């Protein structure tokens, strides 16, 4: 009984004013399934993700109080990426259906869905590295003059991200060096091999972090606050919020193109900036909130750990799934997208390499994100 009460209390608008925005969920269902108004469904689903993401962050923080901050960060990154994972799965199956139909419209839909998957994955990495971590550095820097986090996290996550960037660069360069059908086949085979290697390396990274070298990622284990929810209650809230975030994100994706035509935004900007911006709202809320409590190890694990998981686990897993369905999804993401990720990883590694942060470094990350966002906005 107490577990149900704790979950209901977390949903109570009197507990958190942001919960009032949960009313956007039934509105989204109304516009999506009854009125079939994609534009209004887009905006209401976007609004509804915000309080759901906050609830997800609160539940994860409750769980993190009972675990290490590294494990708490991994949990938040995993559940925070659930929306992107489900979006990508739906898009890949839509591409599969389009190819299976064999019509010109079907093939065009398949191509659009493949580009949507690529753009959302790139946008998730950029958003977490530059926007989320930048906001965490700024908000934490306002409350504390200087904050510290594990240099081991910076080194291990940064190395994996650089490896992922290499996997994006090589197929693009390969296709430039070997044009035509032969180059396309080479990119396809190279992407499949790279995906399997990245998945294996991510598994080894988790074993390294939580088993063989867990002492390198250990924090002092002290928490300045007591849990407000039971462990089962927090898990139930986390699962419930994740389900609704994924549902709203799925509606957001299916209505975004119609909304884009109405407001006149480029599809690339929507895929790289808007979808990850609201799909990653869970990481936004939690990473910034815990940074203000001087829990920078958890904040860094959420922001950068989520990017690492997208780059080294979710993206290659999508390539493998697409491979099994004979959908032409590869690591050839385009010049602008590849260069943007490379620059984001480089500047994040340079700023975070000393294991310390302040508000100015956060402002640098945010400035980089705005510049890259403008590039995608002005892209034809």
Describe the fold and architecture.
The chain has one domain: A middle domain of Talin 1, CATH 1.20.1420.30. 80% of the residues lie in helices and 1% in strands. It has 14 helices and two strands. The longest helix has 40 residues. 49% of the residues are buried.
- Biggest pleated sheet: 2 strands, antiparallel
Can you tell me the overall shape? globular
> How far from one another are the termini?
56 Å
Helix content: over 70%
Q: Please name the CATH topology.
A: A middle domain of Talin 1
SSE succession: HHHHHHEHHHHHHHEH
- Helix and strand composition category: mainly alpha
Number of domains as seen in the coordinates: 1
**Uncertain residue ranges:** none
Number of strands: 2
Q: In a nutshell, what does this entry contain?
A:
80% of the residues lie in helices and 1% in strands.
Descriptive keywords:
single chain; 380 residues; mainly alpha; two-stranded antiparallel ribbon; 14 helices; globular
Set out the fold topology.
Layout (H helix, E strand, L loop, with lengths): L1 H10 L12 H11 L3 H27 L4 H12 L1 H20 L2 H40 L3 E2 L2 H27 L2 H33 L18 H33 L3 H13 L1 H11 L4 H29 L10 H18 L3 E2 L1 H20 L2
Antiparallel strand pairs: 1-2
């Amino acid at each position: 009984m107490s577990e149900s009460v704790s979950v209901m209390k977390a949903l109570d608008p009197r507990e958190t004013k942001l919960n009032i925005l949960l009313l956007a969920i039934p509105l989204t269902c109304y516009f999506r399934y009854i009125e079939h108004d994609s534009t209004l469904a887009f905006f209401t689903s976007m609004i509804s993700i915000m309080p759901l993401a906050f609830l997800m962050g609160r539940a994860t923080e409750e769980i993190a109080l009972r675990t290490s901050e590294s494990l708490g960060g991994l949990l938040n990154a995993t559940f925070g990426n659930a929306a992107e994972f489900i979006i990508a799965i739906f898009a890949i199956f839509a591409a599969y259906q389009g190819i299976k139909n064999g019509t010109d419209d079907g093939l065009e839909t398949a191509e659009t869905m493949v580009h949507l998957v690529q753009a959302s994955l790139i946008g998730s990495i950029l958003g977490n590295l530059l926007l989320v971590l930048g906001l965490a550095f700024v908000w934490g820097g306002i409350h504390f003059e200087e904050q510290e986090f594990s240099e081991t996290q910076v080194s291990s996550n940064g190395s994996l991200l650089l490896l992922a960037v290499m996997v994006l660069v090589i197929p693009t360069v390969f296709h430039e060096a070997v044009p035509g059908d032969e180059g396309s086949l080479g990119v396809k085979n190279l992407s499949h091999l790279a995906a399997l290697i990245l998945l294996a390396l991510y598994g080894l990274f988790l074993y390294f972090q939580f088993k063989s070298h867990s002492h390198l990622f250990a924090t002092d284990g002290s928490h300045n606050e007591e849990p407000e929810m039971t462990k089962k209650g927090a898990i139930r809230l986390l699962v419930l919020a994740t389900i609704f975030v994924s549902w709203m994100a799925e509606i957001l994706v299916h209505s975004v193109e119609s909304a884009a035509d109405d407001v006149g935004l480029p599809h690339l900007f929507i895929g790289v900036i808007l979808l990850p911006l609201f799909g990653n709202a869970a990481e936004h809320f939690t990473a910034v909130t815990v940074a203000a409590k001087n829990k920078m190890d958890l904040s860094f694990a959420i922001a950068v750990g989520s990017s690492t998981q997208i780059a080294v686990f979710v993206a290659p897993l999508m390539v493998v799934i697409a491979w099994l369905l004979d959908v032409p999804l590869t690591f050839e993401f385009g010049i602008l997208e590849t260069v943007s990720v490379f620059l984001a990883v480089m500047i994040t590694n340079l700023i975070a390499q000393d294991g310390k942060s302040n508000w100015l470094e956060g402002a640098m990350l945010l400035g980089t994100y705005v510049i890259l966002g403008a590039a995608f906005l002005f892209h034809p």
